[in-house]
Design goal:
single chain, mainly beta, four-stranded antiparallel β-sheet, three-stranded antiparallel β-sheet, 2 helices, about 35% strand
């Protein structure tokens, strides 16, 4: 352990690394469909897989559900069924490919899976 200097390494922000999202947050509002842009931003990254569950927003007038996916951006799509007022929506996202080229989003209504939406290479 005497060779280890990882605790001495200071964190620094560099455009050559994936941002520290615990500090920077997920404010990116870009479309999650732009995988070419993601690949360009993370040119030195060889593999990346995202698996995350988060809150989803819903517009009852259009039946659109929107999810802000960390790193990828915002993805909206139409649910084939209406969501009751006051229901709890959650979205679980799992990217496809060694480097994301698509994603599978499963929507949960009050804790029960009700719909799965796939886009990109999934």
């Amino acid at each position: 352990m005497s060779d280890c200097n990882c605790n001495q390494t200071k964190a620094s922000h560099s455009d050559d690394h994936v941002p520290n999202f615990a500090v920077a947050g997920f404010a990116d509002t870009a479309s999650a469909d732009n995988f070419d842009n993601l690949r360009a931003q993370l040119a030195d990254v060889d593999a990346l897989r995202l698996q995350v569950c988060l809150n989803a927003s819903y517009d009852p007038a259009s039946h659109q559900v929107c999810v802000q996916i960390p790193i990828l951006g915002k993805k909206c799509f139409t649910l084939p069924i209406p969501v009751p007022f006051g229901a709890q929506l959650k979205a679980c996202v799992d990217t496809c490919g060694r480097f994301p080229c698509g994603a599978k989003i499963t929507i949960y209504l009050n804790g029960h899976a009700i719909y799965t939406y796939k886009f990109g290479c999934c």
